[in-house]
Structure formats: structure tokens, C-alpha cells
């Protein structure tokens, strides 16, 4: 079975996400202090990169009509045996997978 953690083991991923959560909570409370250890990024620009996600027909989604096609947010965990996936936003139960012709 492939690694369900999509390349980043839980002992690395979970603390990173916890730090991100704390930082965002601090910013929201106007409590955040930038440290001198922050990386300096010169000549920066905004761009996008591909991240793993799932696509399919949604059922029971709070914002997408039942049966409508959609994409998930960034995928962090995918377990084919347990038929579950966890994205940045929520858990998904996995139904049948799309079969692609070769």
C-alpha cells in the first residue's frame, strides 16, 4: 500500500501544521511578533504551484450541491484501505474511484 501521508510523515507534518495554526491565531489576535530568524525573500512575487487534491462528484458537502463535480482543497492524507481522505478543509469518505482508459 502506498504511504497515505503523501510524502511527509506524521511526526513532521503534524508539528508543522500546529505551528502554522498558532501563528495564524496570533496574527488574528494581533499578537504576532516576527522573529529575526525569519528568512528574507528578495525580488519576490506571488505565484501558484500544484498541490495534491481530489476531484469527483460531491455528496453532503456544505457548499456544493449533491452530485455536482468539484475539487477538494489541498490533500494531506489519503487511505485507500480505510476509504478516507483528509484535506485542509475537511474529511472525505471515498466512494468508487474513477477508472481511466489507457
Description of the structure:
With 102 residues, this protein is of the alpha+beta class. It has a domain at 1-28 and 54-95. 19% of the residues lie in helices and 18% in strands. It has one helix spanning 10-28, and strands at residues 55-57, 69-71, 75-79, 84-87, 91-93. The strands form 2 sheets. The protein has a 3-stranded antiparallel β-sheet with strand order 3-4-5, with no helix packed on it. A two-stranded antiparallel sheet has the order 1-2. The longest helix is centred in the first third of the chain and has 19 residues, at 10-28. It starts with 9 loop residues before the first helix and ends in a 9-residue tail after the last strand.
Give the class from helix and strand content and strand pairing.
Answer: alpha+beta
What does the main sheet amount to?
A: 3 strands, antiparallel
Tally of separate helices: 1
Tally of strands: 5
What string, H for helix and E for strand, traces the elements in order? HEEEEE
Mean pLDDT: 89
Radius of gyration in whole Å, from Cα? 18 Å
Question: Which regions contain 5 or more consecutive residues with pLDDT less than 50?
Answer: none
Helix content: 10-25%
Spatial order of strands in the largest sheet: 3-4-5
Strand-residue proportion: 15-25%
End-to-end CA span: 22 Å
Search tags:
19% helix; 1 helix; two-stranded antiparallel sheet; three-stranded antiparallel beta sheet; alpha+beta; 18% strand; 102 residues
Amino acid at each position: 500500500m502506498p504511504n497515505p501521508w503523501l510524502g511527509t510523515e506524521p511526526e513532521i507534518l503534524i508539528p508543522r501544521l500546529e505551528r502554522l495554526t498558532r501563528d495564524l491565531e496570533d496574527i488574528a489576535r494581533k499578537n504576532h511578533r516576527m522573529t529575526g530568524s525569519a528568512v528574507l525573500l528578495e525580488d519576490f512575487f506571488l505565484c501558484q504551484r500544484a498541490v495534491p487534491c481530489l476531484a469527483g462528484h460531491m455528496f453532503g458537502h456544505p457548499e456544493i450541491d449533491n452530485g455536482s463535480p468539484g475539487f477538494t482543497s489541498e490533500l494531506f492524507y489519503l487511505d485507500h484501505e480505510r476509504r478516507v481522505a483528509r484535506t485542509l478543509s475537511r474529511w472525505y469518505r471515498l466512494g468508487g474511484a474513477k477508472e481511466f482508459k489507457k
